[in-house]
Amino acid sequence: MDSTATRSGLDGVVVADTRLSEVDGERGRLVVEGHDIERLAGATSFEATAGLLWTGALPQGEALAAIRRALAEGRVRAFEQLEADELPRFVDGMDALRAATARLTAEDGFDAPARLTGAVAVYAAAWARTRAGGRPLAPDPELSHAADTLRMLTGELPDPARVAGLETYLVTVADHGMNASTFAARVVASTGSDAVSAIVAAIGALKGPLHGGAPGPVLDMLDEIGEPARAAQWIEAELAAGRRIMGMGHRIYRVRDPRAAVLEGALARLEQAGLANGRLALARAVERVAEGALRAKYPDRPLAANVEFYTAVLLDAVGLDRAAFSPTFAAGRVAGWCAHVLEQRATGRLIRPASRYVGPAPQA
């Protein structure tokens, strides 16, 4: 590649060597610390996955118990610093999450990955509870991170099947290569700034609709379609009007997003438990019709289901309001953000790319 060439979206530009995850867009493969996501999610707890990202090995025994205690302590400490009365002024959950997280300081111990990860879950849940007209619930340190997060989000002690569904989701989205929010966190970390600042920057990036804002609209789409028999007509009308099909296509994957398969499987298990709200058949029908219609309209652009397609249906089935989808995404991804902050500090340098000036020349 010409070293002077401009890549406005940094496509194909390698900015770091990482041990954390690899996204293979051609083969539709996501590897997290040597583990295929299909094998990791659904078989590994969020605590174990976080430990894997933070230490490089799947923790067991006392090491795993220590991570669970650290996450619980992070939730408890974050709740103690929560300014609950300020939450109602935020219409958008990501605004609330960004503001609450920004109040934390490294001096109070929130430079530690487990503390920050616990805090993001608490603040995402607190805003969701406030939006629903309730009061934020104090964490229960005796519960697993996924179970306590779901309890704080919904206000109820959750069914184990729903906990398993949310846990699969949190593990699935914990890390995903050099995405926009992860890059934002690494840029801030590269300056020598604290981890709280890096995570706040990442939350700001995740808020953008081109990154973390699409799961809710997928559910809106499924609601409009209503039943599998209407999928073809609805999708053809959307394409004819020049509108995009939500949950289809990805910047990196040329085939189906492997995370979509993981979340589809989690939804199928919820359906077997009678908790999927009857949406699985509709989602599968819409995906099948949409993929065929997109292939016919754009034969040179591979557009298949991405992670957001089944995220919407799964999070709805575990009991979340769609307004809480993006903050819950952050509650999973923060484990990866923290891992990238640690890695950047250990192996990176100040990230300072060049730009090409195309403005007017100074007048003589």
Describe the structure.
This protein is mainly alpha-helical and 364 residues long. It has two domains: 33-209 and 323-347, Citrate Synthase, domain 1, CATH 1.10.580; 215-317, Cytochrome p450-Terp, domain 2 (Orthogonal Bundle). It is built from 15 helices and three strands. The chain has helices at 37-40, 46-55, 61-80, 93-102, 113-131, 145-154, 160-172, 180-190, 195-207, 215-225, 231-240, 258-272, 280-297, 307-317, 325-347, and strands spanning 21-24, 29-32, 35-36. It has a three-stranded antiparallel β-sheet with strand order 1-2-3. A hairpin with a 4-residue loop joins strand 1 (21-24) and strand 2. Helix 12 packs parallel to helix 14 (307-317). The longest helix is centred in the C-terminal third of the chain and has 23 residues, at 325-347. The chain is globular, with a radius of gyration of 21 Å. The chain starts with 20 loop residues before the first strand and ends in a 17-residue tail after the last helix. The model has no long low-confidence stretch (mean pLDDT 93). InterPro entries: Citrate_synth-like_lrg_a-sub (IPR016142), Citrate_synth-like_sm_a-sub (IPR016143), Citrate_synthase (IPR002020), Citrate_synthase_bac-typ (IPR024176), Citrate_synthase_sf (IPR036969). Belongs to the citrate synthase family. Keywords: Acyltransferase, Transferase.
